[in-house]
Structure formats: C-alpha cells, structure tokens
C-alpha cells in the first residue's frame, strides 16, 4: 500500500533528477556576472525534487495513516460535500481495458490521419469511439459520424481556412472530390 | 470616472455590432449547453470553443469565450434543481436547497431564484469590475520587474495552495507546468533546453496543446474509463421559471449582498474560482444567515447564496486577467490564451493601447448577463433536453474538437501527438489526484515568471533579496509565502487537535 503511494512521487522525482542532469549539460556562452539559461529550469527542478522527497518521507513516516496538507478552500468544498452529500461521482464501474482501447484508438487515429485524410480517418474514428463507449444503435452512430465529420470539415476548411490533412494517393483523390462537392477550393 | 463611462458606452456600441452580438449570443448558448451537457465542464467547453475563434476578430473572440464563461456558471443549476444532476461542481450546493425546493413542488420557483441570483451577482460584479479595473491598471503601470515577478509568484502560490487536493501534489503539478514552459530554444542565449535533438521541441511546447490535452482529452479518458455511464435522470413534468416577487427578493437582500461580495473577492484571488465561491457562500449563509437553521430544507437563501457568488466570481476573475495579465482559473487561462493568440498581451498597457477592446469585453459581460437571464427564462425547457443526448457521442466530438484545435493552431501533426500525450498526462493527474489547473497555469505563466526573474537578476546584480526589500514586491512576496505556509500550519494544528491513537 505504502509502496503504491510512493511510486508516483518516486517516478516524478527520478525523471526530475535525470532532467536536472540534462540541465547541467545545456550549452551556452556564459557572460560574466549574469545568470545562464540553465538557472531557471534547475531552480524549478530542485523544487520539484524537494517536493517529491518531502512527500515520500511523509508517506513513509506516517505509514499512510494520514493525508498531508491540502488546499485550504478546496478542503472546505470537500468537507461540505462529505457533510451534505451530492459530490460528483462516476456512475459506471472502472474499465481499464476500455480506457486502454480508447487511448490506442486515439493514437491510431492520429497515426492514420495523414494517410487517410481528415474525413475518412475522423468518420471512422468517431464511429469506432462511439461503439467502444458502448453505444449500440449502429444507424444513429453511422449518421452522427458522417454528418458531424462533414460539418466539421466544411466549417474548418471553408469558414476558418484551416488546411486539414488531405490524405495520400486514392484517399487524397477522395478528399478532393469531397471538397469540390462542398465548394471548398 | 467620466472617461470610464464614456469608454464603457463605446464598448456597448461595439458589442451591439452584428458580428460581436452574434458572438455573444453563440457564446451564451454554448455556455448554457456546456453547463447542462453531461461530460462537459465549463473549462472544457471554453477550451473546445477556442479553435473556432482563430479566424475571428479579437473582440468577437474574447466576447464569445467570456459569454461562455458567464453563462456556464448558471445553467448547471437547472439540472441540479430538476434532476439532481449537478452539471458542474459549481452546482453541487444547489442540490441542497434547490433540489429540495423542487421536490416540494416548487421547481419553477427554484429556477426563478437561480435566474435572479445569477443576474444580480453577474451585474453587480460587472459594475465592480469596471470601477476597479482602471485604477488597478494604473497602479500596475508603476510596477517594475520585481513587482511583476512577485505578483506572478503570488498567483502561482495561491493556485497551488488554494486549489484542489494535496498541497504537495498541487506544487508538483505547478513545477511540472513551469518546467514544460522551459522546453525549447531560450530567447536570451539561444540555448536548447530539453529538446533532446527533436526539432519540433525547439519551438517549445505550446500552452494550447497542454491546455486542450490535459483539460479536454484527459477528462474524456477519465469518463471513458467509466464507460460514459451517467446517473439516471429523474422525470419532471414541465420546466418553467417563476420569478420571485420584488418583496420576496428584498426580504433576503442580505444574502444577495453577501453572495455577490464573496463571489467578487473569491474571483479576484487566483486559484479560487466559481466552485469555491459557490461552496463558501453557501457555507457562510449556513453559518451566519438569518435563517441558518432552515438551510438545506429548500429555502431561497440556499439557492441565492451559491448562485450569486458563482456568477459574481466571473467579474472578479476578469480584473487580474485584464489589468495584470494574470489568470486565476482554468477558464480565465483560456481567455488569456485567446488574447495572446490574437497578438494582444493583457496587462496595464492594454488600457492605453487597446482600451476599446477591453471596454467592449466589459460591456459584453453586462449584455451577456441580461441575455443569459432572458435565454434562461424562455429557453431552459428546450436546453435541458440536451441531457438526453448520449454522453459518448458528445465525448467523441470533444476529442475531435481537441484534435482539430491542436492541429489548427500551427498546422502541425506533432502538436496532435503532443495533445494525446497531454491527454494521458491529464488522465493520470485526475487519477492520482494531481490538480490540472496549476500545471496549465505553470505552462502559461512560466515564461513570464522566468523573464521577470532573469531581468530582475540582471538589473539588480543577481541580488535576489530585491524581491523582499522593495516595499510592494516585498509585501506581495510575504503574502505569497503566507499563502503557501498557511495550509501546512492549518494541517499541523488540526493534527495536534486529533486525539492520540
């Protein structure tokens, strides 16, 4: 239990330690009497490491029995919620696999958007995301994915003038056809 | 004073220009929808609206985002009162008396009290904002870099110490944000900091990417882990609003005054936004109000206190943002981002260079509060129907808007990858209770803090005591240290009071 609580702080502390070492290697021409560009990041990293160490020592010393100092006003909010009820709680049980699949799906979307172009990649992504979220009305899902993506593409390319990814090869041809259809030049 | 009134009058003329008025109405409706929709928070809504403002004129863009901020503090009350589903954490206190009043068969009256409270709180705070902004900006004009650093230090300290959860976690989050802001090529020496040979990192990590990823995508991942399951809605027959009479309202004028004053003060303090204002105001009413023993039984004071404070906090929060360029909350951080995206740096100089924009935004808050009340009165019944919309579909579009927002800023796919990374960071922060607001504010204020720190060091021969020896910066630094130390002392005192086990 205590080890599990220490892990996030140990990880952040270790990464900060590595970054502190990296900060000592920053190359620049030192000017006499002035502070270099490494001072500020080193200062921040030193504070970050100190906070992590403090929290690790605190957890070890109190053996997880008590929490540390908390934000004053937020503490009042939480106390009121505990006393009177009504705080926000998620209704569903935790599903780490759904989360992992969702993150993987989002990463896949970013990866293929350059190849497939905005329209095809986004419509497919929205459809898959909604299905992954447990929504099973396939017709509605398909309509929402296609209509929403079309509207977004029209708005960003025609109104805001953002150059969205067009795709490659035949996918680019499809995007150009769609753009002609929407009157986007 | 005459000058301020004349500029405000010009601001009203600007707001009534068709493009600005359209932006205001769209912002109000979007803010109301965001507050009602499951799975969307006020800050997330303002983040998502940001990319849609890229091609807009700066005045219209800020008006739209500010309108969302104002109306976002109001509409969540509808779902709290009608369905016992708080649209935002801001609206939790409205469950205690608002929902109880609705269960007694007075839902329309409860909605009426909310509307009046939001209107009174919003308008009074907007008036105070107009009266205070120019004097505060004039004082800020006399500041030098040590004072600016001290103000930023105070802002960051209070965000960490007043904000959510553990103080250590908030500080870690804040330092991580400050560190992210250092990535890239240093302006003074041209040195590469934490770029690791990756070319895109030389340009630095855009705060927009951190903001959209951590606030927007992180929240979606959090909800995805719970498979977008929302609490079941209770059925209501009709949704209508019945305004209280003038006599009824004047009977609790003390509650209106306390809520408004508290909202403005809390709004002024960085790190304490509408949620804290709403809870504190309810708490004060429950402790010192005339009918404190009846709080929780469905009395108007229990609705008016949190709602006036929540909406009044908007006016308070706009003062440090506009006069010193210091955002105190997630929503004002995004509004600051919009200012910067349009090439405008808020601060005391903005009153000299672009006062017409500032006063147009001020005027838009007055018009916005009135518009919000009108829309609330006539359209609440239609707007609450979006609650029936499946959360997973809303979330899919949230992700799409996040990704489009990141891509549209620099037309760079690497930013989109970074947004996914910061989405996961945002999720981990939520999961392990590291507050996100200090991280985001650290990224935004980091460069400003570093510049002012380094310039002070150069100007004062590396004498860091200068921050403490100059009267104004010394006083602000002392206040910042008290802000940081107070939670620790409070914690130690409470621990000492606990019986030994």
Count of all domains of chain B: 1
Percentage of β-strand residues of chain A: under 5%
Share of helix of chain B, binned: over 70%
User: Unreliable stretches of chain B, pLDDT < 50, 5 or more residues?
Assistant: none
Instruction: Give, in spatial order, the strands making up the sheet with the most strands of chain B.
Output: 1-2
Overall morphology of chain B:
globular
Largest interface: A-B, 87 and 99 residues
Residues in helices of chain A, as a percent range: over 70%
Along the chain, the helix and strand elements of chain B come as HHHHHHHHEEHHHHHHHHHHHHHH
Q: Residue-averaged pLDDT of chain B, rounded?
A: 86
Total number of strands of chain A: 0
Structure description:
- The complex is a heterodimer of chains A (185) and B (501).
- Chain A is mainly α.
- Chain A has 7 helices and no strands.
- In chain A, helix 1 packs antiparallel against helix 2 (39-62), helix 4 (96-116) packs antiparallel against helix 5 and helix 5 packs antiparallel against helix 6.
- The longest helix of chain A is centred in the first third of the chain and has 24 residues, at 39-62.
- Chain B has one domain (2-231, 241-497).
- Helix content of chain B is 73%, strand content 1%.
- Chain B has 22 helices and 2 strands.
- Chain B is globular.
- In chain B, a hairpin with a 6-residue loop joins strand 1 and strand 2 (192-193).
- At the A-B interface, helix 1, helix 2, helix 3, helix 4 and helix 5 of A face helix 6, helix 7, helix 8, strand 2 and helix 10 of B.
């Amino acid at each position: 239990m205590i080890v599990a609580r220490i892990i996030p702080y140990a990880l952040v502390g270790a990464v900060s330690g590595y970054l502190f070492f990296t900060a000592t290697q920053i190359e620049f021409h030192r000017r006499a009497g002035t502070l270099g560009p490494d001072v500020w990041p080193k200062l921040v990293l030193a504070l970050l490491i100190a906070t992590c160490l403090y929290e690790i020592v605190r957890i070890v010393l109190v053996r997880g029995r008590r929490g540390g100092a908390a934000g004053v006003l937020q503490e009042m909010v939480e106390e009121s919620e505990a006393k009177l009820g009504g705080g926000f709680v998620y209704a569903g049980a935790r599903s780490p696999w759904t989360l992992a699949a969702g993150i993987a799906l989002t990463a896949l979307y970013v990866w293929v958007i350059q190849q497939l172009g905005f329209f095809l990649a986004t419509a497919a992504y929205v459809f898959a995301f909604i299905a992954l979220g447990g929504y099973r009305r396939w017709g509605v899902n398909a309509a929402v994915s296609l209509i929403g993506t079309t509207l977004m593409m029209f708005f960003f390319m025609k109104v805001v003038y953002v150059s969205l990814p067009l795709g490659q090869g035949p996918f680019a041809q499809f995007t150009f056809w769609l753009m002609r259809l929407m009157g986007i030049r | 004073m005459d000058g301020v009134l004349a500029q405000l009058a010009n601001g009203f003329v600007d707001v009534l220009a068709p493009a600005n008025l359209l932006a205001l109405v769209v912002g109000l409706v979007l803010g109301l929808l965001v507050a009602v929709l499951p799975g969307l928070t006020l800050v997330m809504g303002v983040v998502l609206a940001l990319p849609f403002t890229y091609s807009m004129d700066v005045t219209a863009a800020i008006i739209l985002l500010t309108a969302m901020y104002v109306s976002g503090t109001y509409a969540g009350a509808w779902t709290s009162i009608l369905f016992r589903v708080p649209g935002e954490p801001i609206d939790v206190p409205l469950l205690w008396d608002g929902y109880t009043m609705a269960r007694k068969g007075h839902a329309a009256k409860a909605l009426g009290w909310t509307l009046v409270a939001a209107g009174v709180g919003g308008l009074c705070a907007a008036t105070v904002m107009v009266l205070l902004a120019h004097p505060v900006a004039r004082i800020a004009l006399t500041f030098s870099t040590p004072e600016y650093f001290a103000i930023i230090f105070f802002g960051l300290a209070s965000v960490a110490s007043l904000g959510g959860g553990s103080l250590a976690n908030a500080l870690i989050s804040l330092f991580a944000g400050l560190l992210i802001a250092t990535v890239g090529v240093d302006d003074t020496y041209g040195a590469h900091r934490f770029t690791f040979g990756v070319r895109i990192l030389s340009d630095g990590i855009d705060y927009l990417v951190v903001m959209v990823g951590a606030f927007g995508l992180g929240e979606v991942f959090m909800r995805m882990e719970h498979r977008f399951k929302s609490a079941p809605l209770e059925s209501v027959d009709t949704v209508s609003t019945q305004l209280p009479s003038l006599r009824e309202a004047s009977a609790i004028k003390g509650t209106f005054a306390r809520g408004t004053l508290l909202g403005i003060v809390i709004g002024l303090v960085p790190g304490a936004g509408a949620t804290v204002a709403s809870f504190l105001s309810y708490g004060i009413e429950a402790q010192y109000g005339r009918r404190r023993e009846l709080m929780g039984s469905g009395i108007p004071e229990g609705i008016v206190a949190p709602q006036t404070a929540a909406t009044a906090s908007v006016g308070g929060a706009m003062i440090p943002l506009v006069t010193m360029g210091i955002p105190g909350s997630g929503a004002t951080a995004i509004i600051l981002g919009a200012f910067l995206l349009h090439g405008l740096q808020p601060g005391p100089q903005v009153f000299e260079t672009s006062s017409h924009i500032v006063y147009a935004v001020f005027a838009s808050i007055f018009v916005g509060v009135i518009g919000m009340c009108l829309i609330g009165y006539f359209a609440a019944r239609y707007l609450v129907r979006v609650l029936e919309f499946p959360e997973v579909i809303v979330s899919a579009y949230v992700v799409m808007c996040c990704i489009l927002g990141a891509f549209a800023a620099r037309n760079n796919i690497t930013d989109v990858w970074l947004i996914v990374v910061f989405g996961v960071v945002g999720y981990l922060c939520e999961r392990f209770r590291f507050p996100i607001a200090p991280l985001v504010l650290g990224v935004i204020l980091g460069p400003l803090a570093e510049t002012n720190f380094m310039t002070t060091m150069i100007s004062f021969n590396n004498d860091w005591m200068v921050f403490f020896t100059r009267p104004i910066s010394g006083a602000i630094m002392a206040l910042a240290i008290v802000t940081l130390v107070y939670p620790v002392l409070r914690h130690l005192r409470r621990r000492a009071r606990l019986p030994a086990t």
